[in-house]
Amino acid sequence: MTSDLDEGAVSALLRTQTLGRAYRFFPECHSTSDLVAEAATKDAPEGTLFAADAQTAGRGRMGRVWHSPPGTNLYFSMLLRPSIAPADMPPLTLLVGAALATTINLVLPDGPRARLKWPNDVLFEAEPRPLKVAGILTEMSTASTRVRHVVVGIGLNVNVDAFPNELGAIATSLALVAGKRFSRAELLCSFLSIFEGAYAKYLQHGASYAVDLFRQHAIYGLPVRFADPRGSGVTLSGWSRDVDEGGALIAEAADGSRHRLVSVEP
């Protein structure tokens, strides 16, 4: 049985110059990001992309497992080789999120808007809390002061119509939001076209371009927990307020103090 993500289906829809031109589809694998990282060490070209119908060890930020039922969603990873310093990498995750939110909003012109929770979650606003529809994981390999490569892994809930009990209150899919199914190949190729253009401008203009795009979709005022940057050893609770020009989160603690954060607790 063929998949709508097999090489022929994606090749027929692809409109990019680089991204996805080296493409492989797997009915099942442990992790597309692991496979792309392995390919990177063997001099795979920038834009190499692997997708799977199912992952047995898909993961998100901080090692959390990504719910990966077969044949319903988009699980893919792509290889980038940006000529930037490692310190300038964080905004790249924000750029990916902005491109993914733009893609989702194009296929849901009359639906709720996809929003971005710093640093790597795509959400739909809902009560009593936003529902996650996609997650992004960027993993960087460095050599001294340069980036060797970056693997960008994305999980997008597309056509799944039910979640395990522990996820049902915090996750959703495009199909559940729109009441219809979507072509995964069309979504993938649309994202690649949007991201390729944004990525080129990011390399030209720098972090501020990625941050500006992220802010167009960002949702703030969400609760966050973080280690006190002042070194007190205390975990603080507060709310997200903004993103600075370097891509860090600005959070407001309960005592009114504001802090620049590069990570938050799950």
Architecture blueprint of SSEs:
Blueprint: H1 7-13, E1 23-26, H2 32-40, E2 49-52, E3 74-80, H3 90-107, E4 114-117, E5 121-124, E6 131-143, E7 146-156, H4 165-168, H5 174-178, H6 184-205, H7 207-217, E8 223-227, E9 235-243, E10 249-253, E11 258-261
Parallel strand pairs: 1-2
Antiparallel strand pairs: 2-3, 3-7, 4-5, 5-6, 6-7, 8-9, 9-10, 10-11
Helix pairs in contact: 3-6, 3-7, 6-7
What's the CATH first level of the largest domain? Alpha Beta
Q: Per CATH, which architecture of the largest domain? A: 2-Layer Sandwich
| β-strand number | 11
Largest sheet: 7 strands, mixed
Q: Spans with pLDDT under 50 lasting ≥5 residues?
A: none
Strand content: 25-35%
Shape estimate: globular
Report on this structure.
This protein is an alpha+beta fold. The chain is built from 7 helices and 11 strands. The strands form 2 sheets. It has a 7-stranded mixed β-sheet with strand order 1-2-3-7-6-5-4, with helices on both faces. It has a 4-stranded antiparallel β-sheet with strand order 8-9-10-11, with no helix packed on it. Strand 8 and strand 9 form a beta hairpin. Helix 3 packs across helix 6, helix 3 packs across helix 7 and helix 6 packs across helix 7. The longest helix has 22 residues.
